[in-house]
């Protein structure tokens, strides 16, 4: 589904990622781990096309996406929930969700049940402005907006950052539900080891701009955590 090969990316003159290669297969939840500042968000932005690839390539469902614009990637079936949510605070919840239809591949003009079923709290808030919601509610809105277009690949960057435990539990269940459906793959950046071990199928650890370790959940030992993740 997603194949990143020997990727190099960064900001301005600064190279953040070097020789990054990873894969996300259909129906998988692949977790991207690493200390703060090692390039996890840079990788997500590069996969989405928000940062240019300097070297290497990004392929999605066999197609070369390396030079494609973010909108074309979205319409190809890649959904993105950025770190910090980036909802539109002056628009209502309903209007924010409607924007997700811009990436729809079937020309839909009405919100699919998907947005309501996975986040049943949102319909009662349709008339409220996004900026009036709590941080956790905004995260649910950003997640639901990404699901409106029915993506085949979902990029989740720190979906549990700074939100209350009850909504973290809700997001965990949504990820499990998506995984159970088997239609959408997920590339997940998350700091909580407990969370990623609970939902993840495969793990990559970034350190010093490259992939330092990869493996399945049972291989993510205390030694690996201490070497690459402990501050």
From TrEMBL:
GO terms for molecular function: ATP binding; ATP hydrolysis activity; branched-chain amino acid transmembrane transporter activity. Residues 2-231 form the ABC transporter domain. One of its GO terms (biological process) is L-amino acid transport. Belongs to the ABC transporter superfamily. It holds the Pfam family ABC_tran. This is Urea ABC transporter ATP-binding subunit UrtE. The keyword Kinase does not apply. PROSITE patterns: ABC_TRANSPORTER_2. Keywords: Amino-acid transport, ATP-binding, Nucleotide-binding, Transport. InterPro entries: AAA+_ATPase, ABC_transporter-like_ATP-bd, ABC_transptr_urea_ATP-bd_UrtE, BCAA_Transport_ATP-bd_LivF, P-loop_NTPase. The keyword Transport applies. It comes from the Bacteria.
